[in-house]
Design a protein that fits this description.
Blueprint: E1 5-6, E2 12-15, E3 24-28, E4 31-35, H1 43-53, E5 59-61, H2 67-70, H3 73-80, E6 83-87, H4 88-96, H5 107-118, E7 132-134, E8 137-139, E9 147-151, E10 160-164, E11 168-172, H6 191-203, E12 208-211, E13 217-218, H7 219-231
Parallel strand pairs: 4-5, 5-6, 6-7, 11-12
Antiparallel strand pairs: 1-2, 2-3, 3-4, 8-9, 9-10, 10-11, 12-13
Helix pairs in contact: 6-7
Length: 232
């Protein structure tokens, strides 16, 4: 169970419900946004959790538009009136409901990626238009939050992260928290760009990093892996 986090400024950050990817709620003064949306098979579980917790999302930030993160974006926009926030490089993929499978970062995941690219129909999802398409940063102040979204490419070209009060970063698939001590993502289109994005994330001063899959990652763990990868 992922714990509920609270910033010094009173913002709550927690996982909405178990799903194929982590869907996070960011709340302050009874205003809410979601970060990522899961796949369509998770929809009833998401709907139940939103109803049970009394959450009406004003917006959805997509860390990127792979099918397991953007699969319910169109539904959330339609049913809840949530505004969709997405980085420019991902906007066209979101509108098509079809995002390229990323490359693997080791021999095993390279093989999986190759298989996935031969069966692309499996990874399509309901198309959706972005309401706010940004290039480098997007301010979340309009939703009553002290936070912003930044472009952190590497996993894919339009990968982004949500930074809350420079304390908590919700990082999508820029890192992974499934296996202790192994935070480097199994899939990334550009590993050198990914490490530059890790530096950008460290530069925010955040102490906690919440990945799209698995549990939270500490700043110490990220710094250690960053140093090791740069040496190599």
């Amino acid at each position: 169970m992922m714990e509920q986090l609270k910033t010094a400024g009173g913002t709550d950050v927690y996982r909405l419900t178990p799903a194929r990817c982590n869907i996070f709620v960011v709340s302050r003064y009874n205003r809410h946004i979601l970060v990522d949306t899961g796949i369509s098979f998770d929809r009833s579980r998401i709907e139940s959790a939103l109803s049970r917790k009394g959450i009406l999302p004003e917006a959805v930030v997509l860390t990127h538009t792979h099918f397991d993160h953007a699969g319910n974006a169109a539904w959330l926009a339609r049913e809840y009136g949530a505004e969709i926030i997405v980085q420019y490089a991902e906007g066209e993929f979101l509108a098509a409901g079809d995002t390229p499978i990323p490359s693997g970062t080791d021999n095993f995941t390279k093989g999986l990626s190759g298989i996935g690219k031969r069966v692309p129909l499996v990874f399509k999802y309901e198309p959706c238009l972005g309401d706010h398409v940004f290039v480098t940063t997007f301010d979340l102040n309009r939703y009553g939050l002290d936070g912003y979204v930044i472009h952190t490419p590497g996993h894919c070209e339009g990968q982004s992260a949500v930074i809350i009060e420079n304390e908590i970063a919700i990082v999508g698939d820029s890192m992974i928290g499934i296996y202790p001590g192994k935070i480097f993502p199994p899939f990334a289109d550009d590993t050198k760009e990914l490490l530059r994005s890790w530096q950008k994330l460290l530069d925010t001063g955040c102490q906690t990093f919440l990945p799209g899959h698995g549990n939270k990652i500490t700043r110490e763990a990220l710094e250690a892996e960053y140093r090791k990868r740069n040496k190599n």
